[in-house]
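#struct-pred
JK: can someone run the complex with pseudouridine-5'-monophosphate? inputs below
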Amino acid sequence: MNKYLSISPEVAQALEEGKPVVALESTIISHGMPYPQNVETALKVEQVIRENGAIPATIAIIGGKLKAGCTPEEIEYLGKKGQEVIKASRRDLPVLIARKEDGATTVTTTMIIAAMAGIKIFATGGIGGVHRHAQQTFDISADLEELAQTPVMVICAGAKSILDLGLTLEYLETKGVPVIGYQTDELPAFYTRHSGFGVDYRMDTPEELAAAFKAKIDCGLKGGMLVTNPIPDEYSMPKQVIDFAIAHAIQEMEEAGIHGKQCTPFLLAKVKDLTGGDSLAANIQLVLNNARLAAKTAKALCEK
Ligand code: PSU
Ligand code: MN
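RT: done, structure tokens with the ligand placed:
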């Protein structure tokens, strides 16, 4: 184990005893939702994971330490400090460690730290991907490269159509990342259950997900697996409302000349403003739904 990693006693014990553990990211806390809903949601997600038989490990960088398992106080700290916590992707890790700074982990860095700790399953809301107009901007999330190389299963609700979903799927195919639809043949689009794009495979039980992931690990095939779990029907949003908000947000972003790591947070915040509390409520529900599936899958993987 490396000296920069700090695994909480509860998570360390669970891993040692071969019990199921689910990793959770912290960019969703510091950058993805407003305070105090971000903290409430993060704690609720942990509770849902426990209720479904696994141990939660919220991942973050605090004072330069790579944390696998945050305390409720640390989650409160990350939530309250919000946007001031640096959004930490792969390229940021070494600098934040050396400077003993805080970092909110994206899908990328959560996968990295989960893999260091020996955690195999990770639940979140949405992943980054190939942005619209990436042909000009080259804006492709590091999340896709991480899925190509780090052996962690990421359970999400698909990707928001702030991205080019078709190009995101092409990229994942090139990189050899299996894209699984949970109880669906179609890639879900975060707030909505449908995108019009097919997934590689449909699987209907946590056991099936665990078996495929175990096979991947046992064969030494590098990289992760992307499980896309549609938002429950009763919480999904009308497609026109979301499409309108996203189109508007992208236009504003281009006019404002936003680029680099600011793009995703800018778009997410704009979409949230334009759709009011509805999108926040949907966001919370889909994360809880993913946490449930992740806990069950982590359990199934431990039983294999
Ligand atoms: N997409 C969402 N919600 C999020 C993110 C993406 O719907 O919170 C966050 C995740 O942490 C993801 C990161 O890993 O944004 C991707 O950022 P970028 O596009 O800059 O790589
Ligand atoms: Mn980007």
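RT: quick notes.
The longest strand covers residues 55-62.
Residues 139, 141, 263 surround manganese (II) ion (ligand 2) (CB under 6 Å).
JK: thanks, will look after standup
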